[in-house]
Amino acid sequence: MSITGQCACGDIKVEIPRPTEMCFCHCTQCRRTGGAVASANFVVPTEKVILSGHTPKTFHDTGTSGKPVIRYFCHKCGSPIYANAEAVPGVLFVRSGLFDPGQIPKPTSHLFTKNFESWETAFPGAATQETEEF
After folding, report:
1. Which of 69, 81, 82, 105 has an alpha carbon within 20 to 30 A of 90's alpha carbon?
2. pLDDT band at 67, cuts 50/70/90?
3. How far is CA 17 from the centre of its chain?
4. Which domains, ranges and CATH numbers included, belong to the chain?
5. What is the pTM of this model?
6. What is the pLDDT of residues 25-52, one digit of tens each?
7. Rounded Cα distance, 33 and 71, in Å
8. Measuring CA to CA, which residue among 21, 38, 36, 39 is closest to residue 83?
9. How far out from the chain centre does Cα 76 lie?
């Protein structure tokens, strides 16, 4: 079974297998490119992500590993769609906010917890990592 989401303007649609896990990334660049203290992502095998509509624009970034991270976003509304990190081959980090409420599982992990704000805590039961090489 799969779920379909879309950017804010609807120009890009994304279909993925129904996720069972969700990861919050608190790295500096995910914070900056998402405009929030973390990005909420599904880690999906590349071949399982189906895009339709307009081709996303890209922002070429560098991950904490020093390797390239390509961030994809809508050309019209600016919604982040997914990221592709060379340091983690074979998967895409698809933004969970593209999907309607009721389709998103509880968080299962937090990455870059060293960047937590003083008031942030991990979701109960979620794995935590202070850093990660992306």
Report:
1. 105
2. very high
3. 15
4. 2-115 (2.170.150.70)
5. 0.94
6. 999 999 999 999 999 999 999 999 999 9
7. 8
8. 39
9. 19
- Tell me what pLDDT residue 131 has: 85
* C-alpha Rg value of the chain to the nearest Å: 14
The 3-class SS string of the chain reads CEEEEECCCCCEEEEEECCCCCEEECCHHHHHHHCCCCEEEEEEEHHHCEEEECCCEEEEEECCCCCEEEEEECCCCCCEEEEEECCCCCEEEEEHHHCCCCCCCCCCEEECHHHCCCCCCCCCCCEEECCCCC
Distance CA 112, CA 38 (A): 9
The length of the chain is: 134
**Tokens representing 95?**
């933004």
